[in-house]
Amino acid sequence: xxxxxxxxxxxxxxxxxxxxxxxxxxxxxxxxxxxxxxxxxxxxxxxxxxxxxxxxxxxxxxxxxxxxxxxxxxxxxxxxxxxxxxxxxxxxxxxxxxxxxxxxxxxxxxxxxxxxxxxxxxxxxxxxxxxxx
Length: 133
Fold this sequence. Notes:
By secondary structure, this protein is an alpha+beta fold. It is built from eight helices and two strands, in the order H-H-H-H-H-H-H-E-E-H. The chain has two domains: 2-62, no CATH class; 66-132, no CATH class. Helix content is 51%, strand content 12%. The protein is elongated.
């Protein structure tokens, strides 16, 4: 189930939270009582767990959606490909994200002769990105 949740393109911190809550909160028994079926690993399917914990609502309320940030700042196109920028435009885009978004960090990455912006949830690994721009 854990891998299936990740494959649903849910951010890793939220998957960790959902999986831990599923294991620790007796959610499986509650889901059994509601008629959810278990699989051959004696767990519920990722889709059922997603529905039971109302993950879409959690993502909306807690701001876990990196894809929404990428769309908002146009750093990924409609096909999911990274948008390429000139050096100054990439710097400005990353700087804008780093100054306006408290839960995310961005950095500039060179790809061939062009540049792109990579954003990720702010954590111990990405904290330094904000000071690098």
